[in-house]
Write a structure and sequence with these properties.
- There is one protein chain.
- The chain has 226 residues and is of the alpha/beta class.
- It has two domains: 120 residues, 3-Layer(aba) Sandwich (Rossmann fold), CATH 3.40.50; 68 residues.
- The chain starts with 21 loop residues before the first strand and ends in an 11-residue tail after the last helix.
Length: 226
C-alpha cells in the first residue's frame, strides 16, 4: 500500500475516522447520464422488447464489461458479427453511436462536486470505461478538468471491482485509503473499495449523497442543496 506523503490538510474529519482529503467519483450513473438505451430506443423505433433483447443477448453486460476491461472495440465487434449477422448494423452502432448514449449529467451531482472542489478536497475519477472514446468525455464535459487524476479501466486493462484498479489509483494519487472516500452506484464496486479500507458511498441520487457526505463531516449542506 502506498505511503501517505501528503498529510491531511485540516479538512473535515469523518466522525468515525481520520480526515478525508480525497474524494473519488465514478462517472457513469453518478455524474454522467449514460445509457445505451438512449441510442437503441431510436434505432429500434421504440420496440422496447427488441431493444432489451439486443442489449441482454447480443451487446450484453458481459460483453460490455470486457470492453471496459480493455478489449479493443474492433475485436469486440468482430467477435459478435459472425454470431449475429442480422444485427450487424446495430452491433457496429455500439461504437459509432457512442456519443448518443449520453444524455447529459446526473441531476445535482455536479453541484456537489463543485462544492467539494471549493472546499479544498482533491478530486479524482475512477471509471469502468472503454479505452478509445476517452477524449470524448473531456470534449462533452469540461468539468472533467476538475479531477486531479482520472483512472480509466480500459486504459489499465483492469475493471472494478478488481482490487488491482483500486490499488493502482491509490498508488497514482499517493494517498492511503484511510484519507479517501469513493462514490459509485454499483454495490460490488463499493464493496471492492471497502475491502481495501477505502470509505465508500453507494450513489442513489444527489440528495442522498449530500446527506452521506454531511454525515461524514465532508460536506455541510447549504441552503437549497439537494
Amino acid at each position: 500500500m502506498p505511503h501517505d506523503p501528503h498529510p491531511a490538510r485540516g479538512l473535515a474529519a469523518s466522525p468515525s475516522g481520520p480526515a478525508i482529503t480525497d474524494v473519488i467519483f465514478d462517472l457513469g450513473h453518478v455524474l454522467v447520464d449514460w445509457d445505451p438505451r438512449y441510442l437503441y430506443r431510436v434505432r429500434f423505433a421504440g420496440d422496447e422488447a427488441a431493444m432489451e433483447d439486443f442489449l441482454s443477448r447480443v451487446c450484453g453486460p458481459d460483453w460490455h464489461r470486457r470492453v471496459d476491461a480493455g478489449l479493443p472495440w474492433e475485436q469486440a465487434i468482430a467477435e459478435l458479427l459472425p454470431r449475429y449477422p442480422a444485427q450487424a448494423a446495430h452491433i457496429r452502432a455500439y461504437r459509432s453511436g457512442w456519443a448518443q448514449m449520453f444524455a447529459g449529467e446526473v441531476p445535482g451531482t455536479l453541484a456537489l462536486l463543485r462544492r467539494l472542489q471549493s472546499g479544498g478536497y482533491r478530486l479524482h475519477a475512477l471509471s469502468n470505461y472503454p479505452v478509445e472514446p476517452v477524449d470524448f468525455l473531456y470534449q462533452r464535459y469540461p468539468w472533467m478538468d476538475a479531477f486531479e487524476h482520472v483512472v480509466i479501466s480500459g486504459r489499465l486493462g483492469v475493471a472494478k471491482p478488481d482490487r488491482r484498479i483500486y490499488e493502482h489509483l491509490l498508488a497514482v494519487i499517493e494517498r492511503s485509503p484511510r484519507h479517501c472516500l469513493f462514490i459509485d452506484d454499483r454495490p460490488e464496486n463499493v464493496d471492492g473499495a471497502r475491502a481495501l479500507g477505502i470509505d465508500a458511498i453507494r450513489f442513489e441520487d444527489a440528495g442522498s449523497l449530500a446527506r452521506a457526505l454531511a454525515a461524514r463531516g465532508v460536506l455541510v449542506p447549504c441552503s437549497g442543496a439537494p
